[in-house]
Structure to design on (121 residues):
């Protein structure tokens, strides 16, 4: 059974809000890469020139880089889900082709797999 259009538009709104939130968060410490859409480069923060400052810069950059990768992956999942809505394939498991449980989609709108396939992954 296809998704209720009302549910689908609710999910689309959630995804758009999530996309905006992720882009804003990424934009606070990284700049958009000119090469690939949805890709960001973490900014290097200058604290100072002595050894302690340099060590702190490296640590901060490492932390940001990890966060950048996490957020980027979430952003990619969110963008993919929006593409599936446009393509009319949203809510269908990418692996087995069955309809993904509506509650699961509402709880995690980025889901591309049904619960069974997700478990097997
Ligand atoms: Zn499946």
């Amino acid at each position: 059974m296809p998704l209720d259009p009302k549910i689908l538009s609710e999910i689309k709104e959630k995804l758009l809000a999530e996309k905006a939130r992720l882009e804003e968060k990424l934009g606070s410490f990284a700049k958009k890469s000119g090469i690939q859409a949805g890709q960001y480069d973490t900014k290097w923060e200058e604290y100072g020139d002595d050894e302690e400052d340099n060590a702190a810069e490296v640590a901060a950059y490492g932390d940001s880089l990890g966060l950048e990768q996490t957020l980027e992956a979430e952003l990619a999942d969110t963008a993919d889900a929006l593409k599936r809505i446009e393509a009319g394939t949203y809510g269908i498991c990418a692996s087995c082709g069955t309809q993904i449980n509506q509650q699961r989609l509402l709880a995690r709108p980025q889901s591309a797999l049904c619960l069974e396939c997700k478990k097997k992954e």
Remarks:
- Helices lie at 5-29, 51-87, 102-107, 115-120.
- Residues 12 and 82 are 7 Å apart (CA to CA).
- The mean pLDDT is 93.
- The chain has one domain: 5-90.
